Amino acid sequence: AFKAAVLIQRWYRRYVARLEMRRRCTWRIFQSIEYACEQDQIKLHNFFSYLMDHFTPSSSKERDFISRMLISGESVKEAELEKYCDYESMEVPDSYAGPRLSFPLLPDHATALLEAFKQKQQLHARYVLNLLHETRKHLKQLPNISHVSTCYSEEVTVCGDLHGQLDDLFLIFYKNGLPSPSKTYVFNGDFVDRGKQSLEILIVLFTFLLVYPNEVHLNRGNHEDHMVNLRYGFTKEVMQKYKVHGRKILKMIQNVFCWLPLATLIDEKVLIIHGGISDTTDLDMLEKIQRHKFISVLRGKKRKESNRNVEIQEINGEDQAQASPAEQDGAASACPQSRSAQAPSMANRLEFSRWVRQTVQEQIERCRRLVDVSESEEEELTYSSLVSMTDLDAPCWTRQEEWKQILDILWSDPMPQEGCRENTVRGGGCYFGPDVTEKILKKYSLQFLIRSHECKQEGYEFCHNRKVLTIFSASNYYEIGSNRGAYVKLGPDLVPHFVQYQANKTAHTLTMTQRQGCPVFSEEGLRGISRVEESAFRALREKLFAHTSALSSAFKAYDKEGTGRITLSNWATAVESVLRLGLPWRMLRPQLVRSAADGTLEYQSWLDDLAMEQRSREHIQSGLLEVIYRNRSNLETIFRIIDRDHSGLISFEEFHQTWKLFSSHMNIELTDDGISDLVRSIDFNKDGNIDFNEFLEAFRLVKQSQ
Description:
This protein is of the alpha/beta class.
């Protein structure tokens, strides 16, 4: 009996270990694909920044196009925004049966909205715009870092990413109670994208913010950014729900996002930020940054290095003669006109400030002449974005330094190793180690950090000796049953208490074995694929199929004799060299390939099987399907940038200018007549406009011609 018990215990431990191994592999697949998509977003931004730096308009039409497409995200003057989003002129028909808002808002308005959204009702566009207008007015009065005290409420509840999952917000309010004078909430960014009810979440949070301005606090996340929204679904969601006034709502939301506070401090001891910190994080700088200038954190980053060096030299009052010859050459090419006067001494700050203002204004005028930027954008580019004129004794930060501060707190992640390095996995922000955390905590007398930004299987996770807490509130983020959501409650003692949940009804009905993916005490079940695993491997097979051509070339490089077979070890090495996802391919191999008896893989047959699986669902030619799978997300984002009115259509002229822009960068030889022939050939319904499917067809035709 004793031996039997030992054998059962040993078998069970091995069983649990294999389950844990499968769980971690599934998790790594989901996260690797998610972060690879974020890398693509950063690369796409860099591509457009490159175009802006290197494309010289040859006509007024091209200047107008670049101005509209690449600078349309900049801020507009207050009067213009209010005139554009004039909600008072909108009529609410008598037939409208949804909730109605009147300002100032009362608690009853908030509860009425919750009930209406539970019944799948939609708030009229007039009320949405009115709410956004009032929210913007309130946010403009708030500091960059909100300060919350546990003295005035029993506890403070901190929620992480919600990502458009309204059911999670409903469940949080059901379990924890609605915001009230005794119930303070901090929502730590990423309210939108990915989920289907992002706009409803914004409406609910903004309503409670106005009803309880001292008890509800909102931090900005990396998804509160209109450039990110173009890729991850929020822009599309708004236009589908508000086809007539959607563009106005998006413009107003874009402006509201840039006024969201950047961080929250609880009792001056707990810092809440969305992403993380870096070794250069400076809370004093964060408090003084004009946050609304950074409408998109993905914009304004890329500039020619020579321009950046010139700017820094000018701000610091350095003489060109002190620069290196290479820097002088760069400065000469960046600024062909000689300076009329040398920079005054930093000792006289008033004189120096006037000089900087004049210098910056000259550069603004030169840039405006280059791309014909309208006067309405002057407010975004003025001297105040570089130096605060209200405090001449304040440190003089460059826009690049301010941008990096915001980028780091919105995009960074912790790592177990010491130090601070570039976050190459996401493509933005940095990785910060325990030493960086300790340094920042000590510098500002903090106890610990709370951040979000990363999905965690249990909804929360400590790291860095329990000095960094990640909280994530969107349950079932990757797939039903994939993860729990959580929120954390802090009392006056600042000891965290966690509440976990899963909002989806289906998740509650799954047994533990179904979530893990195998029947108990079944070796066959261990080899089976769970619902969550199947979703992960399906996404991974799509990723593999999208790189069929590159994989085929990589496999042939290992197949020196042309046998059509490679070893499984070479298969794993080749796949990682192409996809660069950092996955344990040898461990994942049994779920992805079937090897021959001699331990080799017939790679062309395997690639054909991948293509057959995708074709059976899409019914599209394999070659075209591979191109679409690999590029669809980028192409859809590009299409939405060009489609300024978000109508789902772009004009022939916009299409023509877009392809001229791309061809100049990608060395594709396309004449004006060639582009005109192309646009006519893909306008299948002959309506004089190009929709997204027709845009994809143009991409395929150009790739084929190459």
